[in-house]
UniProtKB/TrEMBL annotation:
InterPro entries referenced in this protein's UniProt entry, alphabetically: Cat_transpt, TrkH
Binding site for K(+): 113-114, 318-319, 435
Keyword Cell membrane: yes
Keywords: Cell inner membrane, Cell membrane, Ion transport, Membrane, Metal-binding, Potassium, Potassium transport, Transmembrane, Transmembrane helix, Transport
GO terms assigned for molecular function: metal ion binding; potassium:chloride symporter activity
Protein name: Cation transporter
Membrane-protein topology: Multi-pass membrane protein
The organism of origin for this protein: Sphaerochaeta globosa (strain ATCC BAA-1886 / DSM 22777 / Buddy) (Spirochaeta sp. (strain Buddy))
């Protein structure tokens, strides 16, 4: 059963909320006297007003405010689709983007924290448009619906189903008994880190506009930048270190920060996923730096470590920033970065991808199967840190990984129909699905998606949405059982 009136009412209110947040870049368009951009934002407001007015007037008040699991999946998926549709209007209507397909791709890339772009040249665009582009990164990092859940009690609706459908990872951390309070805590931590990073970047010489937009994309593990050369444009080791640190912060489970603030620091350091997550970053950073140093790619080991640590954090956390064109690095270093495509950040983080916890669980499942072959009557549990995984959760993880890889492969085949080469096709597919933003081939650190036809951009937008909502939230809508009463 689907409560259509309630779902449409929620979608209208969420879109009004997105429109309210659009006031910030609109004010910037006035501040910088960007008439075309202001026209684009005004057209977007008109579209939002028409949609919300018609929706709220026609459907009226729902007879019941009871939500079912199907309502959660439907509202969350449509929220991202509709929010992107209206948020893309300023980009297209201002003339900053060549067509609506490109604008939709860009905003979907923003909200899903992918960071992939269709822009061959960035700095010539209106500052207000670039700010909105980065702001969508920040809004999507912790989740559009999770942010809105704090307002749901006023509508008399429980947000647990919505947060569950939008949150990432095989397990969902409920920090407090009330889901509203959990949402407030997560966003408070998110805002606190964002404020701290902005201050540190300003201290490092960046102006407020650059510092805020870089922070938006860093804390969201997203990757949009207002510079053509991404973070490398600043040419500052200090900025690289600050951004690297906060990329790692954004890629860790935010529930751990709440535990630390609650005085449970020892449990944070005992967290198995966190240890593996930081271990992967350290391992790849050091070994890549060693080869970069030995191959004389950079002048010293510490210079090599600066670039390898940054790029490792960028891809592992699925942020997608760049300070170097790593496609010119030695093959071994590139191979290490490529492996990170199939890992991603931690569960409960702003990062995308498969997630570290799933990769560790899969490896331990393999070990358990080997032991089972040797000792058929033995019972072997899969543990990550202090957590023991139930059998049903392990099946869910294995299923997710299988569907994830299958989706990426099918995506690569579809993208290859555009004429893109094999490396570009696979890279584009998995970077969209994993919300990574940069890859190899024509979509590498100096490339973009502008060369792809419009229909491929729509398909890539779908991959980004599927990846951000972790496959099944979207895929369930294509099941005939979903629509049966």
């Amino acid at each position: 059963m689907i409560n259509w009136k309630l779902d449409l009412r929620l979608l209208a209110f969420i879109e009004l909320f997105i429109g309210f947040l659009m006031l910030i870049p609109t004010a910037l368009s006035f501040r910088y006297q960007e008439a075309d951009a202001m026209r684009g934002f005004l057209i977007a407001y008109l579209g939002i007003a028409i949609f919300c007015s018609i929706t709220l007037i026609l459907i009226g008040k729902p007879k019941t405010k009871t939500m079912y699991a199907r309502d959660g999946y439907l509202v969350v998926t449509l929220t991202w689709v509709i929010a992107t549709a209206f948020s893309a209007i300023p980009l297209a209507a201002s003339g900053a983007y060549v067509d609506y397909s490109s604008a939709y791709f860009e905003i979907m890339s923003g909200f899903t924290t992918t960071g992939a772009t269709v822009l061959p040249e960035i700095e010539s665009l209106p500052k207000s448009i670039l700010f909105w582009r980065s702001q969508t990164n920040w809004l999507g990092g912790m989740g559009i619906v999770v942010l809105f859940v704090a307002l749901l009690p006023a509508l008399g609706v429980s947000g647990s189903l919505l947060v569950g459908a939008e949150s990432v990872g095989p397990t969902k951390d409920k920090l407090t008994p009330k889901i509203k309070n959990t949402a407030i805590i997560l966003w408070s931590i998110y805002i606190g880190f964002s404020f701290l990073q902005t201050i540190l970047l300003v201290f490092g010489g960046l102006n407020w506009y650059d510092a805020i937009t870089v922070t938006f994309s860093t804390m969201a593990a997203a990757g949009f930048c207002v510079k053509n050369s991404s973070i490398g444009a600043f040419g500052s080791a200090y900025v690289d270190i600050v951004v690297t640190f906060f990329m790692l912060v954004s890629g860790a489970n935010f529930a751990l920060y709440y535990k630390a603030l609650s005085g449970k620091i020892s449990s944070v350091f005992k967290d198995g996923e966190l240890r593996v997550y930081l271990g992967i970053w350290a391992f790849v950073s050091v070994f890549a730096a060693l080869q970069l140093s030995f191959s004389s790619t950079y002048g010293s080991f510490f210079e090599s470590l600066r670039y390898s640590a940054f790029q490792t954090a960028s891809i592992l956390t699925t942020t997608g920033f760049a300070t170097a064109n790593y496609v010119h690095w030695p093959a071994f270093s590139q191979a290490l970065l490529f492996l990170l495509f199939f890992i991603g950040g931690s569960a409960g983080s702003a990062g995308g991808g498969v997630k570290v916890i799933r990769i560790v669980a899969l490896i331990k499942m393999g070990r358990a199967q080997l032991k089972q072959r040797i000792h058929p009557r033995g019972v072997f549990q899969v543990r990550v840190g202090q957590t023991t995984f139930r059998e049903d959760l392990l099946v869910s993880i294995a299923t997710f990984f299988g569907v994830y890889i299958l989706t990426g492969v099918v995506g690569a085949v579809v993208i290859s129909l555009s004429g893109a080469d094999l490396i570009t096709s696979f890279s584009a597919s998995f970077l969209c699905l994993g919300n990574i933003g940069i890859g190899f081939g024509e979509v590498g650190p100096t490339g973009n998606f502008a060369f792809l036809p419009s229909w491929i951009k729509w398909f890539c937008s779908f991959l980004m949405l599927v990846g951000r909502l972790e496959l099944f939230t979207v895929y369930v809508l294509f099941s005939k059982h979903f629509w049966k009463h």
